[in-house]
Amino acid sequence: MTFIQSDEKDSIILAIETSCDETSVAVVRNGREVLSNMVSSQIDVHQRFGGVVPEIASRKHVETITVMIEQAVEQAGITMQDVSAIAVTQGPGLIGALLVGNVAAKSLAMAFDIPLIGTHHIAGHIYANQLVAELQYPCMALVVSGGHTELVYLEAEGKFQLIGRTRDDAVGEAYDKVARAIGLPYPGGPHVDRLATEATETVDLPRSWLEPDSYDFSFSGLKSAVLNVINQTRMRGEEPKYGAIAHGFQQSVVDVLVGKSMRAVKQYNVKQLLLCGGVAANRGLREALTKQCEDEGVPLIIPPFEYCTDNAAMIGAAAYLKWKHGQFTELDFTAHPQFSLEQWSV
Ligand code: KG4
Ligand code: ZN
């Protein structure tokens, strides 16, 4: 199939996201304007298992995806004939979950003869910022979610360079594991955040800076330190001070995330810092980053919460980069659980 994309026509992208435990379909005009953004979360189903169960996630996506597509199109006030391209998360993510969205997208593309855009999930998180602000290049993105902790340098629009990533747990994953040790429900991030914010005491915990020039992260040592404090206190027959532990944990996480981001902002001399991913909801992180950026005169962009957690509007925003360049994906593409962000650059 050959598709010609015209600069004069509005781009109406129907976007599908099923990489983890949210089934989401959105309609986005010209990469900026969200006409609809339907999100169906599966958290209730996975909660009793203490984390996402991949097979259940896939099954739930299958049950929900068709209705979500219909609702997103209806709510946007368009018909399938108005759609310029179908965008879908190609990876990274859970393979079974990705496949549900990929098959739905391919079916629509074939049935309506519309081009496809296989889209990178992290590019989506980063370009969620484009839904609320005009991006200026070069810029730096701090991606913090349940599956990712990355510092991404964007020299120009759609040009991604990964300068740092976690070597073990993602930051959201560490929050969820600490929450579990404290006995809080999944996903635990918001609960640990609340405990930390309300705490009047703190426990001193280590900071994992790694090598002085590294932009990589590591959170598993910190998570083990938290577990040690809890276990040792219990072995003495005492009740751990969970608020103080949550506070110490959050301080350590925030210090490292903010410290490395600000160093990257300076070294790469960027015009903006973008924060994205589910952990961008964290009060401690938002406050510390906002203050540091104000002090150092760095413009900081944080999308509203609905665009921080997994959603299809962000996929539509990122896919617009490819649409502008007429870079469409063949119908026989495959889902990539480990998809390279740099290779996805325009
Ligand atoms: O981006 P997201 O919705 O899904 C992934 O792509 O992973 O992020 C979910 C993660 C979970 O680990 C959750 O515990 C964490 O974001 N999270 C938080 C907060 N709100 C959500 N972590 C810390 N503080 C929060 N307020
Ligand atoms: Zn995500």
Question: In total, how many domains does the architecture comprise?
Answer: 2
Question: What does the average pLDDT come to?
Answer: 95
Relevant CATH superfamily of the largest domain:
ATPase, nucleotide binding domain
Percent range for β-strand residues: 15-25%
Sheet/helix structural class: alpha/beta
Largest sheet: 5 strands, mixed
CATH topology of the largest domain: Nucleotidyltransferase, domain 5
Element order, helices and strands? EEEHHEHEHEEEHHHHEHEHH
Low-confidence stretches: none
The number of helices is 11
Account of the protein in words:
Helix 5 (171-182) packs parallel to helix 7 (220-235), helix 7 packs antiparallel against helix 8 and helix 8 (242-267) runs parallel beside helix 9 (283-296). The chain is 43% helix and 17% strand. It folds into two domains: 12-127 and 308-344, 2-Layer Sandwich (Nucleotidyltransferase, domain 5), CATH 3.30.420; 137-302, ATPase, nucleotide binding domain (Nucleotidyltransferase, domain 5, 2-Layer Sandwich). By secondary structure, it is an alpha/beta fold. A five-stranded mixed beta sheet has the order 3-2-1-4-5, sandwiched between helices. A five-stranded mixed beta sheet has the order 8-7-6-9-10, with helices on both faces. Strand 7 (149-154) and strand 8 (160-165) form a beta hairpin. The model has no long low-confidence stretch (mean pLDDT 95). The protein has helices at 43-47, 54-76, 95-112, 121-127, 171-182, 189-198, 220-235, 242-267, 283-296, 305-308, 312-324, and strands spanning 12-17, 22-29, 33-41, 85-91, 116-120, 139-144, 149-154, 160-165, 272-276, 300-301. 51% of the residues are buried. It is built from eleven helices and ten strands. The structure holds 5'-O-[(R)-(carboxyoxy)(hydroxy)phosphoryl]adenosine (KG4) and zinc ion (ZN).
